[in-house]
Write a structure and sequence with these properties.
360 residues, 2% strand, mainly alpha
């Protein structure tokens, strides 16, 4: 919205700053951060009053989690509110990629909100049936994937770009749409599975989004993309503003989610964040790199898949408990130790993912 102030510029005044994505990204970050600090405590107070007993705790979960009973959930409303507000304020609203990531974020956030509401109101851990969540998720992902494909340059449409190999584009034709849908839905649910410890999901989400934001800005500039030999995707640079809002809102949320958490993000936040990250990966044609920068989420999801599949086949478990962060809890690792080590791994993976821009 503020971008239109450039119309008042003669090229040498303060209004000219609004032309620059980096300046507006900084503004989005600060806006979202301040939003989180201003509305965080009031939102927590409202959620505590409305939810009473807070988020239900699984009876079969780690014993240490029962002390968290009564903690309110749906804190993802703070993150989503901050990033949406900052994006609408600072991004160019004539950019289709901005609307794609906003659409996915809000739509998955609504699914998560419905799931959180069902859990809190019924005081059980079931929520919205899994099949319904997946069906809605794939419908949202289809719209976003097709929309992004129509915005991509013709030479990139329905093609999968492979990292490291600069000239390789796999023409998947319309099979690209199911693949992209899987990326978005998979990312949303992987972040949701990761959200099991205080601060565990939010920091890797910010790190992965930050890496993808840098990629979006890079592939959205013809000079940078030519220098690095990456595929040029005009318009994706504006996604950096959305990412800046996500990081600012995420930090504002983390202020209250740091151990011991005053609020949980719930499915409202985890599904919204995961869907957003997946949508950015599809929009920037870096779906495979997303699997690297979001490697923590991939491992968390795979641990559940392996555990369930192996147990059904043999009646035995591979991990003491899945997702894998609970396995380390069962082994006696302190919760902050698990969280911080996962943060470190996330940062390393993000740097590896960014390195693929130069390894060509």
């Amino acid at each position: 919205m503020l971008y239109w102030l450039t119309a008042l510029s003669d090229g040498g005044d303060v209004f000219n700053l609004f032309r620059y994505i980096t300046f507006r990204a900084g503004g989005a970050f600060m806006t979202a951060l301040i939003f989180g600090f201003i509305f965080g405590r009031p939102l927590i107070n409202v959620l505590r009053r409305r939810q009473g007993k807070g988020q239900p705790i699984r009876n079969d979960g780690p014993e240490g989690h029962f002390v968290k009973a009564g903690t309110p959930t749906m804190g993802g409303l703070l993150i989503v509110g901050a990033l949406v507000t900052s994006t609408l304020l600072w991004a160019r609203l004539d950019n289709g990629y901005v609307w794609i990531v906003l659409f996915v974020t809000l739509a998955f956030g609504l699914i998560g909100f419905a799931d959180d509401y069902a859990k809190v109101s019924k005081q059980n851990t079931k929520g919205v049936p899994g099949r319904v969540r997946l069906l809605l998720g794939f419908a949202i992902a289809f719209v976003a994937s097709y929309w992004a494909s129509m915005l991509h340059p013709e030479e990139l449409q329905f093609r999968l770009a492979l990292p490291v190999f600069k000239d390789v584009l796999w023409n998947m034709s319309y099979f690209f749409l199911p693949f992209a849908m899987f990326v978005i839905v998979g990312a949303a649910n992987a972040v949701n599975l990761t959200d099991g410890l205080d601060g565990l999901a939010i920091m890797p989400s910010m790190i992965a989004a930050g890496a993808l934001g840098i990629i979006a800005y890079t592939v959205g500039r013809v000079d940078f993309s030519e220098y690095l030999d990456v595929h040029y995707v005009p318009g994706t640079g504006e996604i950096l503003i959305f990412v800046a809002g996500l990081i600012g809102g995420g930090l504002g949320f983390l202020w209250y989610n740091a151990p011991p958490a005053a609020v949980f993000m719930g499915d409202t936040g985890s599904l919204a964040l995961g869907g957003a990250i997946g949508a950015i990966g599809v929009a920037t044609k870096h779906e495979i790199v997303l699997g690297i920068v979001g490697g923590i989420f991939v491992v968390e999801a795979l641990s559940v898949i392996i555990q369930v599949a192996y147990f059904k086949r043999t009646g035995k478990r591979v991990f003491l408990m899945a997702p894998i962060h609970h396995h380390y809890e069962k082994k006696g690792w302190a919760e902050p130790t698990i969280v911080i080590r996962f943060w470190i791994i996330s940062l390393i993976l993000a740097l590896v993912g960014l390195a693929t821009l130069k390894l060509r």
